[in-house]
Amino acid sequence: MFDRLLALFNNPESYETPLPESDARHAMGTLMVRAAQADQAYLFEEIELIDRVLAERNGLNPVEAAKMRAACERLEEEMPDTDALAGMLKTAIGTEEAEATLRALWRVVFADGIKHDEEDKILHQIELVLGVSPERAKTLQDEVAAEGRQTS
């Protein structure tokens, strides 16, 4: 599967059919890794949250989630630009899942408690490609930020 994903990412123009569900899950995980690394700091809090989100959304135990994250980290190193990856994911998910993906991405970005312009930029780029309106995306961002303040 890893080789198939890399081949797809290395030649996005050849992409014509929706991603299989497992590939869409890896695409979402890879976007989370990319968002977490956007500020050039990949902190334990972000890694821990990525593992938790992968486990929750994919019905994985902690070890399986960590293995999936590791695969997503390898994919992140090899994948094309963010727009191409988000565009491939968009064809595999509906509006509700796109919003859930953005919520998960904002959770990862907020995990370290520090707001970085680089992370903000990449999330806004992803929301545009996923087709979530700026107004709705702002609402999702604010909801996730409020949830974070309540748990702190």
Commentary on this structure:
The chain is mainly alpha-helical and 152 residues long. Helix content is 76%, strand content 0%. The protein is built from eight helices and no strands. The chain has helices at residues 2-10, 21-37, 44-58, 62-78, 82-90, 95-110, 117-130, 134-151. The longest helix has 18 residues, at 134-151.
Give a quick precis of the structure.
With 152 residues, the chain is mainly alpha-helical.
State Rg. Answer: 14 Å
Unreliable spans are 12-20
Q: What's the mean pLDDT score? A: 83
N- to C-terminal distance: 38 Å
Our estimate of the beta-strand percent is under 5%
Annotation field: number of helices:
8
The helix-strand sequence is: HHHHHHHH
Kindly state the percentage of residues in helix: over 70%
**Helix/strand-derived class?**
mainly alpha
Strand count, sense and closure of the main sheet? none
The shape is globular
Count all strands and give the number. 0
The quaternary organization reads as: single chain
Set out the fold topology.
Blueprint: H1 2-10, H2 21-37, H3 44-58, H4 62-78, H5 82-90, H6 95-110, H7 117-130, H8 134-151
Using brief descriptors, characterize the structure shown.
76% helix, mainly alpha, 152 residues, globular
